[in-house]
Amino acid sequence: MSTRKPLIAGNWKMNLNHLEAIALVQKLAFALNDKDFDRVEVAVLPPFTDLRSVQTLVDGDKLRIVYGAQDLSQHEGGAYTGEISGAMLAKLNCTYAVIGHSERRQYHREEDDLVNAKVRAAYRHSLTPILCVGEGLEVRQEGAHIAHSLGQLDGALRKITAEQAKSIVVAYEPVWAIGTGEVATPEDAQEVCGALRVRLAELYDTEVASAVRILYGGSVKSGNIAGIMAQPDVDGALVGGASIDAAEFTKICRFSDMPG
Ligand SMILES: O=C(CO)COP(=O)(O)O
């Protein structure tokens, strides 16, 4: 039995303004209790414009929900119009920063070098990266999904020390399962998550490999979370669409009560 605390993280993507963000976090705080937070770490990942409001609410009401950003700049500051720095996110007490999400790789042409630079920027500001890896449909059909995901992991972790790597969160998100309703089977998720953990042991050591939390993401719902969480190398979920529905996200956080 692993000692890794499960993490259920809601990636809101480009949904909900700051007022809607407050309403959703309030609903989650009302629905979830101390027993839930003892069992599972619950994180929300709202748009940048919501973070200050979420921080104020979490601080003011001493909520046990943690939060983070969906991206950050690799730069420290200066003439980078439209970018948000790690220092700015750290000042808002963000715990996490999502890095290398497939939507950024696809629509913003983020490659492994940039992803690596962002991972390093996150560590400079004591933010925990939620590093996303995962293959598209063609790669899966060729049977190259493991090599592809491991390649993205290798690329992202260049120059990252064992001490740093120990705290990273890796999210395996097969692109063909994102927002499509096409969920990978629990065995598909385990196959790649297990391979990612073996690679962490090769890149570092077994201490790092057994400390790192590896999440699955892609059409996670209350109806499929239990089977996914039953896999030995899956330590949580990165939830998209279902994370902006308070009742549904609450059920996902209570995955141990859901039918498998
Ligand atoms: O991309 C995802 C989370 O980062 C998954 O999105 P969906 O849960 O909407 O498929």
From TrEMBL:
Q: Which reaction does it catalyse?
A: D-glyceraldehyde 3-phosphate = dihydroxyacetone phosphate
**This protein's UniProt keywords:** Cytoplasm, Gluconeogenesis, Glycolysis, Isomerase
Cross-referenced InterPro entries? Aldolase_TIM, TIM_sf, TrioseP_Isoase_bac/euk, Triosephosphate_isomerase, Triosephosphate_isomerase_AS
Point out the coiled-coil segments of this chain: none
What biological function has been recorded for the protein in this entry? Involved in the gluconeogenesis. Catalyzes stereospecifically the conversion of dihydroxyacetone phosphate (DHAP) to D-glyceraldehyde-3-phosphate (G3P).
**What PANTHER family does this protein map onto?**
TRIOSEPHOSPHATE ISOMERASE
Asked whether the keyword rRNA-binding is assigned, the reply is no
Which proteins does it associate with, and in what oligomeric form? Homodimer.
Return the Pfam families for the record.
Answer: TIM (PF00121)
Q: Give the family from UniProt.
A: Belongs to the triosephosphate isomerase family.
One example of the protein's molecular function in GO is: triose-phosphate isomerase activity
Q: What is its EC number?
A: 5.3.1.1
Per UniProt, substrate binds at 11-13, 179, 219, 240-241
Query: Subcellular location, in the record's words?
Result: Cytoplasm
Q: Which positions carry the signal peptide feature in this UniProt record?
A: none
Pathway in which the depicted protein is active: Carbohydrate biosynthesis; gluconeogenesis; Carbohydrate degradation; glycolysis; D-glyceraldehyde 3-phosphate from glycerone phosphate: step 1/1
Classification via PROSITE patterns: TIM_1 (PS00171), TIM_2 (PS51440)
Say if the entry is tagged with keyword Translocase: no
Q: Which Gene3D superfamilies match?
A: Aldolase class I
- Residues annotated as the enzyme's active site: 101 (electrophile), 173 (proton acceptor)
Q: What's the protein here called?
A: Triosephosphate isomerase
